[in-house]
Specification:
Layout (H helix, E strand, L loop, with lengths): L1 H15 L5 H16 L7 H18 L2 H9 L9
């Protein structure tokens, strides 16, 4: 569960900064998706399913071409978020 808390904390810190923009938001959202996807399905299936449900509901708010373009133009994008 610690592997999911760290990306959430990093996203909050990043998005609370004065220099944050929508590209940072989308970038951190995708990093969070990777962390959720890596949650163990053997021991934490209910928590993982809850996270996926909540993530999908929030992702619908950001699912537009402008945000996707801003992600590809983000300096942190190198084809791999890990």
């Amino acid at each position: 569960m610690c592997n999911i808390i760290k990306p959430i904390k990093e996203a909050i810190v990043c998005l609370e900064s004065h220099s944050s923009n929508l590209a940072n938001c989308y970038y951190n959202l995708l990093k969070l998706a990777i962390a959720i996807n890596n949650i163990s399905t053997e021991h934490q299936i209910m928590f993982r399913n809850y996270c996926i449900t909540k993530f999908n509901s929030r992702y619908k708010e950001f699912n537009c071409d402008e945000y996707l373009l801003s992600y590809f133009l983000h300096p942190g994008y190198k084809g791999n978020l890990n």
